[in-house]
Design goal:
Layout: E1 2-6, E2 9-15, H1 23-34, E3 41-45, E4 50-54, H2 63-78, H3 102-112, H4 117-133, E5 141-144, E6 154-156, E7 161-163, E8 170-173, H5 174-185, H6 189-200, H7 206-232, H8 246-254, H9 263-279, H10 284-292
Antiparallel strand pairs: 1-2, 2-4, 3-4, 5-8, 6-7
Helix pairs in contact: 2-5, 2-6, 4-7, 5-7, 7-9, 7-10
Length: 293
């Protein structure tokens, strides 16, 4: 990425160095820019994997302010014309698809033995429980960003929020974006209702609350599995090591206090989500509501 100045005006020049086809990436970026979610796009070159957009001078965005602004941003995003489907899925909705590749992927987490035996069994019990009740189908599939678990993909210029990096954007369950953003910003039940009311424009109904709750649990499962595996490098994780409280961790993460390239931070990230999950029981009434819906 380069900040370039032309005629006294700053622009952002990005060159994709991976050998991927950026067609879908650029199509999604143009659509987002037209909706005011991404800075103005001036130029894209699919063959050479180059894009030029307006440059955003980033200012701090507090967690409280983000909690107010992000529901409307997500509502606008999900209201775009549907994005294309991706040949890959890097979000927790990967675990919702009934593909033959999923079981070996999940079972590999068992063989790595990153958690104590009893906790591994707890993990798979939760996985089976959530898989049995979460609705499948395309009724909630919308244009989604899918990479908002990274706080630096949410940028603020002092007036409006922009979303950066659209290479992971594709058609996905709307609750995936909602869950990952809420997991960073929402701290209690009252804030959860405010967040969802801001998104839907009215009080969420019982089904919306239940589906949102289950997707948040699913994201905790995925983050536990993915980040413990990435950070541990195949070694057992010492679960006796104290980790920050969930809200404190995300407060510090939102403020940019962690170097997330470091293996120990990845392990901490996975451990925090696991601790959150095992403290948050999936209520039988919630499961029953979705079964009967």
């Amino acid at each position: 990425m380069f900040r370039i100045v032309v005629g006294g005006m700053p622009y952002l020049l990005k060159i994709i160095v991976r050998g991927e086809d950026p067609t879908r990436h650029y199509e999604n970026m143009w659509a987002a820019a037209e909706a005011g979610l991404d800075p103005r796009v001036w130029y894209t070159d699919t063959e050479n994997r180059i894009s030029i957009t307006d440059f955003v001078r980033v200012e701090p965005l507090s967690r409280d302010e983000a909690g107010v602004r992000m529901p409307g941003v997500l509502r606008t995003l999900h209201g775009l014309a549907p994005f294309g489907r991706a040949p890959f899925n890097t979000t927790w909705t990967f675990l919702l698809n009934k593909w033959p590749e999923i079981d070996p992927y999940v079972e590999r987490f068992r063989t790595l033995k990153l958690l104590p035996v009893d906790e591994i069994e707890e993990f798979f019990d939760r996985y089976a429980e959530l898989a049995s009740v979460y609705p499948y189908g395309d009724g909630e599939m919308v244009a989604s960003h899918n990479d908002l678990f990274k706080p630096d993909n949410v940028r603020f210029d002092g007036k409006r929020v922009w979303l950066a990096d659209w290479e992971a954007a594709f058609l996905n369950d709307r609750y995936a974006d909602l869950a990952v953003v809420a997991n960073q910003l929402v701290r209690n039940e009252a804030e959860e209702r405010e967040f969802l009311t801001g998104y839907w424009g009215s009080e969420p109904d019982a089904y919306q609350l239940a589906r949102f709750h289950l997707m948040r649990q699913r994201s905790h499962l995925f983050c536990t599995m993915a980040f413990l595996a990435l950070g541990s490098r195949g070694n057992a994780v010492d679960m006796s090591v104290a980790v920050p409280e969930y809200g404190e961790f995300h407060q510090r993460r939102w403020a940019g206090e962690f170097d997330e390239t470091q293996p120990e931070v990845k392990v901490q990230y996975g451990s925090v989500h696991w601790a959150r999950l095992i403290r948050t029981a999936v209520e039988e009434s919630t499961l029953r509501r979705l079964k009967l819906a």
